[in-house]
Fold this sequence. Notes:
Number of helices: 6
Strand content: 5-15%
Largest sheet: 2 strands, antiparallel
Amino acid sequence: MRRPTSAPAARDRLPQLAELEATWPALAHGNRIIHGDLRADNMVRDHHLGVTFVDWAHATIGPACIDAASLAPQLILAGHTPADIARLLRDHPASSPDTTTAFLAALTGHWHNNARKPAPPGARGLRAYQCRAAVAGLALLGFRLS
């Protein structure tokens, strides 16, 4: 299995990324209901009704910017550029740059760490997905921190 790799820019920023990740708990407060696991397989599109978010198993209360931030690496995996996604996050109505960046650092660290673990029984493909997500998160963070 391919392990997450750090682009030279991410490796050079490792102390900064770790610092950002460490700030996340202090910023993880808010009063919005957030889905907590937005990705393509948790969205159903109807041509008349639009998009409906499903599988609310990870719903919680938190900062309003989290769902957009958690979707951002998924959009990179779908082929969008980090520049486009950074612009989307910047222009999002619930934009909070410090909170979004800290959350992305924590989420990317989570994926990077878990991608290195043995695959759990019955979850074939999970570690490969986490590896791809970590790489996407690093690409976005590298762009946001430039």
